[in-house]
Each structure stands twice: as C-alpha cells, then as structure tokens.
Amino acid sequence: MESFGLNVDNIRGQDYDNGSNMKGKKKGVQRRLLDINPRALYMPCACHSLNLTLSDMAKSNGKALGFFGVVQKLYILFFGSTKRWKVLLDHVPDFTVKSFSNTRWESRTRSVHVIRHQAPQLRLALAHLRDASDTEANDKTDANNLFKALGKFDFILGMVIWHDILYAINLVSKKLQSSTMCIDIVLQQIEDMQLYFINYRNQGFASSMVTTKDIASQMGVESSFPVKRQGKRKKQFDESEYNQEILNAEKEFKVHYFLELVDMANSSLKSRFEELQGFKDIFGFLLSSTVLKALDGTQLAASCTKFAETFSSDGSSDVELNDLISELSVMRLSLSEIEMTAMEIFQYITKMECYPNISIAYRILFTVPVTVASAERSFSKLKLLKNYLRSTMSQERLNGLATLCIEKELLDAVDIDTIITDFASRNVPRNF
C-alpha cells in the first residue's frame, strides 16, 4: 500500500472472509493492521458469514448431511453419461440437476430447487434408468437406491424444509452482495433473517407437513411417516395406536431435525454477526432520522463521545466532539418528519455544506466495508481467463483481460464502433 502512495493511517475499515489467517485477532492480518492503525475497524464479510450459518446448520444434523449427499448423487448419476443425461432431459425438460459447491451455498439453493419442484419427474427418470435394459448394473443399483430415497416421506419433508430455508437465505445473500451495501441495510437484513427463523420455528413445520403430503400424493408414495407394527398383523394393529405411532414419529422428526436446524440457525446468526452488533453500538445513532430524533441530550452526547473515542488515536480524532454534538443537535431539528435513511441524511447535509463533522462521521460510516463479494468475483475471473490453454499468457495481457471482465458494466457502455474505426485508421496499409 505504501508503495502505491497510500497512507495506512487513512484506513477506517477492513473486511475479509472468515479465514483465520485474515481475521485472526492475535496474528492475523486484522491484528497486524490494527497494530499500525487502531481506527481500521474489522468487519467479517457478511455474505461469507451467512453462508457459514448454513454450513453450521447442515453439520449440526446427520440427516441433513445425508440429504445433501443424495442430492449430489443425483447429479453424479445423470451427469456421468450423455445417455443418462438425455433420460433426465426427457423427463425434466425445464430444469437440470445442479451440482453444488462445498463453499458456495448459493449453488445448493439451485440444486434443491430442482428437486423440490420436479421430484415426481425425477423419480420417473430414475425408474426409467433402473428398468432400462441398456443400463449398467452399478448404475441400476444407484438409480434404484435414489428412487427409494426420493420416495421416503422424511426425505420429502427435509427437502421442503431445506428449500424454504435456502430460498429465504439466498434472497438476503443476493442483497448483501451489492457493492453499495452499507451497515444500516446489513443490520436490517440480518434482523429480518433472525425474525424469519423465529416465525419459521413456530409455523414452518406445520406448513411443511401440508406441502410434503401434497407432494407425496403426487408421487404416489405414503403420505405419512412409516410406522413399525412390531410383529403385529395389519388387522390386529389398533387404528388409534397406529395414529399415535405416526404422531410420535412426527414429533421425533420435528424435535431432532427441524428444531435442531432452526435453533442452530438462530445461534449461528447471533455468534457470526456479533461484530456487526458492535458496529451498531458505534454508528447506531447515525442510521436513521427516527433514531437520531429520539435521542435526548444526554444520550446524544454519549453516542457522539463513543464515536469520537473509537476514531481517535495518538491524540488526534477524526471529529471534534463538542462540534459534532452541536451540529447534530441543530441538524436533527431541520430533518423531514418522514423517516430518512443514513444515505438520505448524508445527501441532505452535503447540500447544506455547513456540517463538516457530521459529514466526516457519515463518510466513515459508508467507508466501513461489510462484504468482499465484489473483490471475490475479481479473483473468480482468474480461473476463467488463465486456464491450461492460456498458460503462456503474459502478465500484461492477463491484466487487460481481467480488467475487461471485472469492469464489464463500463465495457458495455463503450462505443466499440468508434474504437474499431480508430484502430483501422491507424493501421491503413501505405499502398492504399
């Protein structure tokens, strides 16, 4: 950074994924940078933390791991042969089974989405492979095992539950990947996510049962948990006792599968976004006009003091405390009665040009990064650009192609015809 003429003392935020070499509090990059500049506050990547929440949920339950194992086996079976892939497309023309990544949980959303909405058709494709005379013995066995797995009531119920969870989290993850994402929006999204899991814990199992029974009836399989009759003949098995056994099986699944997943989600969200709550304590009074107006004089002074102390080092501070308190006291009286976001307040004071300390405070707020999704995409482009066929590519050409991919929005706005005309005019043969 110093070699590019950048002053490390000007950093007000640092953001990495959850690798220990980066976020380490004692020996990681976070610690090394804080030793140089204590005002470079660390924020873990919100998108990565949200994906790790899903990982925590899956690892907390053996049945959940088994569910994703079946999903992956479906992909392996059909993708391993063009003939089997053709069978899949004949039965499921609208979708294709998606393989998922162990690190990118968004891919699992697409995988589960296919099975959730095309389970009967997928089962027919598996039955076709199982019964086809030209299918190899190993593939017949795999197709038969997967056919049975997709027909189990507990698998279908787990499929519905995971689809609801993955779909809800994927919506939030998409929003968090925006390059303009700010702390106030992230806080709201995470709070909404926690509220979703609280509501889903109370109502999600009952609604999932209704959906599962509907799917099971479409597939022609049993619409309830299988019950062991303990050696009794069907006629000797009391109907009320049978119904009670089904209720017990539902309760066991709810307690040892559904509730475990949801409780792990709430616990993981709370622990992985703990640093985010620390940022709320520092910047909370700046996040909306409603919060700013609700503070009395003592509370406003306390919030400003904490902010000034956080961004002070070696006797210097980014803001002058007393001036910041005075400016906020005057400025909040002129704010609109309609609730304004942090960005709207900043745009307002920018037009006024008379609140220098408030302007600095909001610029620091918007400077602190909350996600590294945009930067991660830059690295993801490298494996597409420099593959084994381009192993001898020069560094200059690699930089140029990477810039074109990373700045695609700017590239699309460029007038290519003008560039071609200019290039042609410079390379006209002399004999013309």
From TrEMBL:
InterPro entries: HATC_C_dom, RNaseH-like_sf. GO terms for molecular function: protein dimerization activity. It comes from the Eukaryota. Residues 320-410 form the HAT C-terminal dimerisation domain. This is HAT C-terminal dimerisation domain-containing protein. It comes from Eleusine coracana subsp. coracana.
